[in-house]
Amino acid sequence: MAVEIERKFLVTDPPSEDVLGAGVPYRQGYLAGEGDVEARIRIGPDDAWITVKAGRGVSRTEVQVAIPVAEAEALWPHTAGRRLEKVRFFVPLEGGTAEVDRYADELDGLWTVEVEFDSEEASAAFTPPAWFGVELTDIEGWSNAALARRGRPADPPS
Amino acid sequence: MAVEIERKFLVTDPPSEDVLGAGVPYRQGYLAGEGDVEARIRIGPDDAWITVKAGRGVSRTEVQVAIPVAEAEALWPHTAGRRLEKVRFFVPLEGGTAEVDRYADELDGLWTVEVEFDSEEASAAFTPPAWFGVELTDIEGWSNAALARRGRPADPPS
Fold it and tell me: Which residues of A are less than 8 Å from B35 in CB distance?
C-alpha cells in the first residue's frame, strides 16, 4: 500500500496505563527532506525500517521497508539534529487502532495520536474520542519531521 | 555491507559495443537530499530499489533495499526536477567490474564509469585503464544526485 490516509491529534489527557498497554520504544532519524518528501529511519527494539513519505494532507504516499538494524545504525550518525525518540502504544478504537506516541528527550511531555484509515471517506467520517485533543494533521511544525528538527512549536495550534 | 568504497571517472572514449555488452536501462529519481545524505529510487526493467547514501569521498555509507516496482512508481512523481536516465554496462576489469553509465535525455553524450573496491587500500592502489578519463570522485557537481538536479556542469573537471 503506497497511500497512507492518516489523521493526527494532540493528546493532553493521555489514557491510563492499563488502556495504553505495553509500548514499543522507537528512535526516528530524518535522513533528508526536500520539497514534500521526507526519508527517515526508524529503529525499534529488534527491527528497523526506511520510510519515505511524500505529499501533504490526509492522503500521502508512503513506502516503508525493513532493513537490517546494523544498516540503520550505520545511517543513524547522519541524522544528527534531526531525531526524536518516543514510545508508541496501540489502543483499539472502534474501526481501527489509535497509535499513541509519548515523546522523550527534548519533546518530553508531548503526546500525540495518529489514526490510519482505509479511505478518505472513512477519514472524513471519523469522530475522535473524547481524549483526543486538537487536530494536528498538516499543521505546520507538528509533523514528526518538523518536531525532530525544530522541537515543539511555542504555540499550540488552535 | 553499509560501506561503499567507490571511485568515479569521466569516459570520453567509450569501449566498443562488443566490450560493453548488453546494458540495463535505469531511471533514477532523487527523493530528498540534506547535508551529506541523499535518498533516491532506482527503477530498472523488472526491479526497483530505495538507496540512501551518506557521507563524502571514496568511502560512503550506502544502504540499498529492493521495493516493489509499483511502490517506486508511486514515489516517482515526487522526484520531478531531480531525475536522470541511463543505461548501465558491466565491463570486467582486473580485480573487479567497471560499471559504465551512458546517460540519456538532457545528459545525452555523457558517459561515466564507477569501480567499487573491497578496501580503501585497493581503491588507492587502483590503476585506471587507458579508456578511463579524468577522475570525478567527490568533484562538486558530478555526483549523480547533482547531475539529476542541475545537469552537466559547464566546465569539465581538470
Answer: 32, 78
For residue range B51-86, list pLDDT tens digits in order.
Answer: 999 998 888 999 999 999 999 999 999 999 999 999
Q: Where are the alpha helices (DSSP H) in B5-156?
A: 17-20, 69-75, 120-125, 144-150
B9 and B133 Cβ atoms separated by less than 8 Å: yes
- State CA B106 to chain mean position distance: 16
Q: Chain A partners of B50 at a C-beta cutoff of 8 Å? A: 39, 50, 52, 63, 65
Q: What angle do CA B144, B59, B156 make, to 5 degrees?
A: 40
Residue type, A25: P
Please, are residues A58 and A7 in contact by the beta-carbon 8 Å criterion? yes
Q: Does A69 touch chain B (CB under 8 A)?
A: no
What ipTM was predicted for this assembly? Answer: 0.91
